Amino acid sequence: MSTPLLSVRDLVIKFPTRHGPLTAVDGVSFDLAAGEVLGVVGESGAGKSLTGSAIIGLLDPPGHIASGEIYLKGERIDNLRPEEMRAIRGRRIGMVFQDPLTSLNPLYTIADQLIETIRTHLRLSEREARKRAIQLLDDVGIPAASRRIDDYPHQFSGGMRQRVVIALALAAGPELVIADEPTTALDVSVQAQIIDVLKEQCTQHGASVILITHDMGVIAETADRVAVMYSGRIAEIGPVREIIQNAKHPYTSGLMGSIPTLAQEEDRLVQIPGSMPRLSDIPPGCPFNPRCDKVFDKCRVHRPSLIPVENREVACWLYEDTEARGAAT
Amino acid sequence: MLAYVIRRVFQSIFVLLMVGLVAFSMFRFVGDPVENLLGQERTQADIERVRDQLGLNDPFPVQYVKFLGNALQGNLGVSYRQGRPVSEIIAERAPATLELAGVSALFAVVFGVGLGVFTAIRRDGFMANLIMTTSLIGVSLPTFLIGILLIYVFAVELGWLPSFGRGETVKIGGWSTGFLTESGLKAIILPAITLGLYQMTLIMRLVRSEMLEVLRTDYIKFARARGLSTRAINFGHALKNTLVPVITVTGLQIGSIIAFAIITETVFQWPGVGLLFINAIQFVDIPVMAAYLMLISVMFVLINLIVDLLYFVIDPRLSADASARGH
Ligand SMILES: Nc1ncnc2c1ncn2[C@@H]1O[C@H](COP(=O)(O)OP(=O)(O)OP(=O)(O)O)[C@@H](O)[C@H]1O
Ligand code: SF4
Ligand SMILES: [Mg+2]
Questions:
Q1: With an 8 Å Cβ cutoff, are A107 and B217 in contact?
Q2: Number of structural domains chain B divides into
Q3: Mean pLDDT of chain B
Q4: β partners of residue B66
Q5: Which residue out of A89, A107, A119, A212 would a mutagenesis test of the B interface target, given it has the greatest number of B Cβ atoms within 10 Å?
Q6: Which residues are found with C-beta within 5 Å of the ion, ligand 3?
Q7: Is residue B5 part of a domain?
Q8: Per the domain annotation, does B293 fall within a domain?
C-alpha cells in the first residue's frame, strides 16, 4: 500500500494539573488516504478536537503531545520547529472551526484576510492573489464575489461566513482539511448546504478531510470512513456503510441508535445509560466497561487495543478471537 | 455615520455650554467683580455706573450669552492681578503646557503600547514580569514624589538634567518653543516623564490585558491555523483589535495629562498654564481661573470627540451600527 496522506501513531495528549498529568487523548492511531473523508464522532470530551489540534500543531498549552507520532505523506510533523510547522499550516493542512461568527477578524475585509493567507503561502502578486480570492469565494457559493470580497465579516450571515472560512482554509491549496464541528453553530436550515460546499470544494481541490462532528447523520452522508472516539481513544474505525449497518463495538451500536432525524435534533446518546467518565477517573481496562451491556471480567482489568476485524478495527475484547484467527491464518 | 458625527458634535457643544455656565457663574458670583475693579474709594453711584457698563444689571441669560460671545472672540476678561487681558496671558503660557503635555502623551502612548504588547507576547518571560512588577510602583507613587525622585537622581546626584524651568526658548510667531535649543530639550525630559509615567503604566497594563484577551480569541486561533507569521498575527491581527478598546482610555488619559500638568508644573516650576492657575488661586484671580477651567474643558471635549471619531476609522462594525441607528 502506498504511504497514506496522514498517519497518526499512538498519539497521547496530556495536560499537567496539580494532581498529576491528565491524559486526554490516549493512544490514538489511524491513517487517512489522499482524497478520503474521515468522520470523527464521539461524545463531548472524547478528545476529537484535541486530536485535530494536535495534527495541525495548535494544541493550546499546557496541553501537549506526550508521545506518539504524526506523519504527513511519510514526513514526521509533530516534532517540527515552530517556523516549519507554521509553513505547513494553511499550506498543507487547512482548518475550519466551529463558529464562523468568531473565526474571522472583524476589523479586516474578507479580501484582506484571503489575500494575506494566499500571499503568505504562494508567490503571487497582490492582483493575482485577489483574483484567486474572488475565484475561491465564487467556488464556495458567495454571490457577487467580486463585489462582496471587499465587505467586512459582519456584513455576512453565519452561513455565508462559514463559506468564507472554508475558502480561507482552502486558500493555499492544502492536502488536508480538518473541520471541527463546522455546522454546530449554524442555523439548521443552512447546515446541509455548508457540509455540501465543504465536501464538494475539498474534493475539487483534492484535499482529504477530517470531519469532526456529533452528528452521525452528517457522517453517514459525507464520510468514507468513520472513527468513533470514546474517552480519548478510538473505539472503532472503518468504512461508514459497514459501521452504520453493523456496528461491532457496543458503544458504536448505541451511537448508531441515536442518529438524529430532521424532526428530532437530539445529539445526546439517549440509548446508552450513564455518561462518559471524567478524565480523572477513567476506569481500568476498557473505558466503556461501566456502561457496556456485554461487559465481562477481562474488560475490567485489561485495556483492549484496536483489533483488526474485517475492513475495520475495533477496540473491544469481544473480538479478540477474531484477531487470533486472523493471525493464525 | 454623518448623523452620528453631527450628533456627537452637538453633544460636545452642549457640554461646553454647560462648562461655560460654570465658569461664568464663578465670574459672576464668586467675589464681586465690581469691588475688584473699583477698590476702596467708591461711591454707590460709581458702583451703579460700573455695573451698567459691565452689563451686570442685564438679566442673567443675556449676561451669559454676552459672556459666551466674548469668550468665543477670545475675550476672557482682564486678570485682576496683572491687569492684562486673560487671553494674552494664557496665549503666552499655553505653548509651555502644550509642549509638555504633547511630549508626555507621546511618551505615555509609545511606551505604554510598546511595553504592553511586549509583556503580553512574552507573558511568562523574566523581563515581562519585571516590567509588570515595576509598573505597580509607577501606578502607586504620587506624581509629585516621582518628580522629586527624578530631580534628586538626575538633577542633583547625576547632574545630567536641569531640575526646573524650561531652558532657553525660541519664538516662532506667537509660539515660544523649547524644542529648538539643547537646554530646552533637556529641560522637558524630566517633567514629561513625571507627567506621563502614570498614564504610561496605565496604558501599558490595559494594552497587556486586552492583548492577552485578543490572543485567546477564535480569529487569532484561525489566523494561526492559516499559517500566518507570528509577526502578522501579533502586530497585524491582535494589536489592531487590542487598540479599539484602548483608544478611549488613552484619549481620556491624554486629557488628564493636560489637567494634571498643574502638579508637574509646580514641582518643576514649568512656566505653563498650570503654574499660572496655581498662582491665580493664591490671588483669587477669578478671570484667570475661569479661563483655565474653560480651556481644560475644551481640550477634554475635543479629545473625546476625536477619540469617538477615531473608532470609526478603526472599527468597521461601528459605522454600520451607527448608520443603522441613524435612520
Ligand atoms: N486546557 C485543558 N486542561 C485540562 N483539560 C482539558 C483542557 N482542554 C481540554 N481538556 C480536556 O480534554 C478532553 C478532550 O477535549 P476535546 O476538546 O478534544 O473534546 P471534544 O471531543 O472535541 O469534545 P466536544 O464535542 O465537546 O468538542 C476533555 O475532557 C477536556 O475536558
Ligand atoms: S471491551 Fe468489554 S466493556 Fe469494553 S466494549 Fe468490549 S465488551 Fe464492552
Ligand atoms: Mg470539540
A1: no
A2: 1
A3: 83
A4: none
A5: A107
A6: A 49
A7: no
A8: no
With a 6 A CB cut-off, is A252 part of the ligand 1 pocket? no
H or E element at residue B41 = none
3-state secondary structure of B325: helix
Q: How far apart are the first and last CA of chain B?
A: 10
Q: 3-class DSSP state for residue A137?
A: helix
| A120 contacts on B by Cβ (under 8 Å) | 226-229, 232
Q: Which atom of ligand 2 is nearest to the CA of A292?
A: 8
CA distance B299 to A21: 57
Which residues touch A147 (CB under 8 Å, ≥6 apart)? none
| CA A52/CA A37 separation, integer angstroms | 14
Query: What does the pLDDT look like over A207-227, one tens digit per residue?
Result: 999 999 988 888 998 999 999
Please answer yes or no on whether A58 and B227 come within 8 Å at the CB atom. no
Chain B residues with beta carbon closer than 8 angstroms to that of A56: 225
Report strand pairing: A312-314 vs B175-177.
unpaired
For B227, the closest of A90, A104, A108 (CB atoms) is: A90
Other beta carbons within 10 angstroms of residue A242's beta carbon come to: 15
| Residue in B closest to A56 by C-alpha | B225
Q: Residues B96-119: pLDDT tens digits? A: 888 999 999 999 999 999 999 999
With CA atoms as reference, the chain B residue closest to A99 would be: B218
Structural domain boundaries, residue B106: 86-275
Beta strands A6-15 and A22-32: pairing type? antiparallel
Chain A residues within 8 A of B225 when measuring between CB atoms? 56, 58, 89-90, 94-95, 97, 169
Residues 234-293 of B with CB under 8 A from A: 236-237, 240-241, 244
Cβ(B89)–Cβ(B285) below 8 Å: no
A116 in contact with B at a CB cutoff of 8 Å? yes
B21 is a domain residue: no
User: Model pTM?
Assistant: 0.81
What ipTM does this complex have?
A: 0.88
- DSSP-derived pairing of the beta strands A37-41 and A225-230: parallel
DSSP state of A122: S
CATH at residue B249: 1.10.3720.10
Is residue B282 one of the residues assigned to a domain? no
Ligand 1, atom 24, lies closest to the CA of A44
Run of H or E residues at B204:
helix B182-215
Which domains are assigned to chain A? 6-325 (3.40.50.300)
